Amino acid sequence: MPHRSILFSVIGIGILTGVFTRSVFVVAEVFIMFTAAIGFIAMLPWRWRSVRVAGLFVIAVAGGALYFVVREPAINQTTLQWYAGQTVTIHGTISAEIDRRKDHQKLVVESYSVEIGSDNYPVRGKLTAKVPLYPGYQYRDELRLRCKLERPQPIEDFAYDKYLALSGVHTVCLRPKVEVVGSNSISNVVSIIYALKDHIIVRLNELYHEPQASFMAGLLIGARRGMPDSLLEDFQRTGVTHIIAISGYNITIIASIILSATQRWIGRKRAFWLVLAALTVFAVITGAQASVVRATVMGVIVLLARQSGRLSSVGVSLILAALLMAVVQPLVLAYDAGFQLSFLATVGLVYLSPRLERSVKRIPEFFGLRETIVATVSATIMTLPLITWQFGRVSVVALAANLLILPLIPTIMGIGFLSLVASVFWWPAGFGISLVSSSMLEYVVFVTEFFSRFSFASFEVTKFSVWIVIASYAALSWFLIRTNPTQRNSHLCPPVSKKQ
Length: 500
Hints:
With 500 residues, the protein is α+β, with helices and mostly antiparallel strands. It is 59% helix and 14% strand.
């Protein structure tokens, strides 16, 4: 690895370590400055270069922790959090896509004033409110809410407060009385996208029966409304929930499968740009939410790995992507499970896949079967310790279920999208195409329900500590280092043919 890449990696990993540590533990600013001083002392002209590198790393750790402290939101009379514990009237605007469930909907409201008695105070901050399913609300509606404000609290082992903070929400509006006082009629890009998503859901309900309609909506735009609880439970037991969730874990595997399947027909370079364009369109259609953007970034890194084949540059890209995400939202490193799974799945696809491919050379490359198996196993191995720790459940049948389902997902998404477009121009054509994807969805449901019937399909894990997770990834890191990857790997970058 070039000298500059080493320095960048040391600084980047140090900053990420500092941000992560400060987001999990309360560290005093004095201790952070003391740590930085130790780093500066180590940076003095010692004879040992490793000591100076260690000092640079320590300084970067302190810088990351200090950045987290600076980014922590201040609480004063101009912030909504200041009024937590009081029953007040809030004026604000719906600022995010409405999360509609079977019997309720969740609103995220950007507040601009708080009314207490006859006084009105300007404030800033977001709140979330759970309201009945009817009446319906629209993005950018101006609301007047009367409720008791509370700061969100952790729910058992789930850091609910940090989960909301990822979206900039720091208050919960309990038992709200909601009144629509106006609507912003000026459309922007986001409102157009949300309206398009609603139109897509309506059209899918016309083309498909349930649960295929909700299933297809989850695949195409990440919507999970209407999905039966029993089917969701089957997805969880068989370890295939990620196929209906927009996450880097899902996108990276699908991007890898599509790239492997298409590059044989149109060449590696054309396949790269085709998949990159598809990921961009997918991110835009789903509303370009923060989680979707992070997932797309990880998918793009996998594409760059396959395109360049240089593991050193890919490693730097991974660190840079994590740094950019931590700069935008420092809490993402410790509390965004989607980002963590995305990052680890990407590492598995980039670094572990080449090792595993050596063991599956006898498997035919028919329709990218070998690539699919390698990608699925690599991502599963890299994410298993984290999934076990975070969700306390291990699916024994996850690997088999994913191998039978994942290869079809890109095709189902493509045919489903084609049925939507065709139905706009000629309904019978769209409906006819939907019958093909509907039968494929039925196959996916059948496989999921089949594996979920086994009593041993999954089991609870109650004593899986964070130290076991650390030890697991230390062992995986040792394995990757000992295998001594080449600078240009044949799996990531096959020889360029004249057709390409």
